[in-house]
């Protein structure tokens, strides 16, 4: 069983963040699966691997303080692909792909800052 059903963050520029996450999460197999219209109070976008949204962004200003969200990657090549896609989508480097042995010997991750400065990570726990 998963610990969380879903998580969401507020973003300062909804459409910029929507475009960023669509591109950055694609290599992880995570796609836009639901949109909520502004007419309900605020626009939102839900991302997931299936039809169930597990990660949400909502218009409404920056979440403070910044958050750290780590997405699971099935292998190291996918971590590399996430990092490349995120950088191409406008992310700021916050730690290129590599082993983070201080966590454990097979902790392979990449870190980027999204348009609001949130620390977004893709991580694989499998050996090379």
TrEMBL record:
Residues in VOC domain copies: 3-125
Superkingdom in the source lineage: Bacteria
InterPro entries reported in the protein's UniProt record: Glyas_Bleomycin-R_OHBP_Dase (IPR029068), Glyas_Fos-R_dOase_dom (IPR004360), VOC_core (IPR037523)
Pfam families referenced in this protein's UniProt entry, alphabetically: Glyoxalase (PF00903)
PANTHER family the record matches: GLYOXALASE FAMILY PROTEIN (AFU_ORTHOLOGUE AFUA_5G14830) (PTHR35006)
Name of the protein this chain belongs to: Catechol 2,3-dioxygenase-like lactoylglutathione lyase family enzyme
Protein species of origin: Kaistia dalseonensis
């Amino acid at each position: 069983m998963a610990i969380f059903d879903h998580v969401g963050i507020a973003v300062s520029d909804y459409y910029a963040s929507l475009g960023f996450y669509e591109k950055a999460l694609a290599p992880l197999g995570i796609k836009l699966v639901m949109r909520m219209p502004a007419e309900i109070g605020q626009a939102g976008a839900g991302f997931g691997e299936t039809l169930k949204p597990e990660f949400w962004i909502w218009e409404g200003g920056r979440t403070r303080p910044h958050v750290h969200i780590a997405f699971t990657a099935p292998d190291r090549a996918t971590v590399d692909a996430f990092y490349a896609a995120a950088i191409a989508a406008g992310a700021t480097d916050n730690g290129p792909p590599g082993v983070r042995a201080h966590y454990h010997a097979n902790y392979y991750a990449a870190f980027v800052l999204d348009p609001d400065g949130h620390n977004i990570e893709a991580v694989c726990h499998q050996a090379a």
